[in-house]
Design brief:
five-stranded mixed β-sheet; 8 helices; 7 strands; about 240 residues; single chain; Nucleotidyltransferase, domain 5; alpha/beta; two-stranded antiparallel ribbon
Length: about 240
């Protein structure tokens, strides 16, 4: 779905449209792969048109066809320590209205998805590298909160936290002060990631784009690619569990 503001389109009932969008956003708490489509539609709630309603019906048909799918914590795996891994990605400038990046992250605890997000960045990034570095800092804040929560629950965790990203330059920006000339305009709060990398609390790891799980939450994908990533995220059909 590549939606734009349709000024000349047929107007639909705004109340009904907003109610459906609100319900879909609630479902995103348990259906991670739906976050991108719902987030995209949510950007046009102030003036819904028929083209948006048709796009939303596509999402509703997807929900109907995958009503037996869900995210489960794996059973039968014994670990002395739990491993928390984060994936971060960004679709640079893919918003066709404001040309801002759509970014997302997903955190897996022993291969089970426990936290995810897909949203339009609130700042203008000057490059794909910068977009991923900025949202990497945002994702790190959430991941560190999860780490502290697990520590409070007396759960033993592997350290450092591994954050997987498919951009070498973003990784170098967090490690190498030489890159400062290219990134000095980035606000101080987004350098939170660099601080944690230097303290060895977070380790940025390069991850191939083909294996980047967050692609399903940041951009439009073909069916085969989408279904493959959905399986890697841990969304499975409950009918086949037995």
């Amino acid at each position: 779905m590549k939606l734009i503001r349709d000024e000349s389109g047929e107007v639909v009932n705004e109340t009904i449209f907003n109610h459906i969008v609100g319900s879909l956003r609630y479902l995103c708490n348990s259906i991670p792969e739906m976050s991108f489509g719902v987030g995209l539609i949510s950007r046009f709630m102030s003036s819904p048109k028929r083209s948006l309603m048709l796009a939303m019906k596509r999402v509703l048909r997807y929900i109907q066809g995958t009503s037996d799918y869900g995210v489960l914590f794996p059973d039968g795996e014994q670990h002395s320590e739990l491993e928390l891994i984060g994936f971060v990605d960004s679709g640079y400038g893919r918003d066709l209205v404001e040309r801002k990046s759509t970014s997302g992250y997903i955190c897996l605890l022993n291969k089970a998805s426990i936290s995810w997000c897909s949203k339009k960045q609130f700042v203008d990034a000057l490059s794909s590298c910068e977009a991923k570095y900025i949202f990497g800092s945002f994702a790190t804040c959430q991941a560190m909160w999860l780490v502290e929560l697990l520590r409070e629950l007396k759960v033993s965790m592997k350290a450092p936290l591994e954050l997987r990203i498919d951009n070498i330059f973003a990784i170098n920006m967090s490690k190498n002060p030489i890159s400062h000339g290219r990134s000095r305009h980035i606000e101080i709060r987004f350098n939170f990631l660099r601080d944690l990398v230097n303290k060895e609390r977070v380790a940025l790891v390069y991850w191939k784009t083909d294996l980047q799980l967050v692609d399903a939450m940041t951009k439009v994908l073909k069916n085969d690619r989408f279904e493959g990533l959905r399986k890697l995220i841990g969304v499975i059909s409950l009918k086949h569990l037995t």
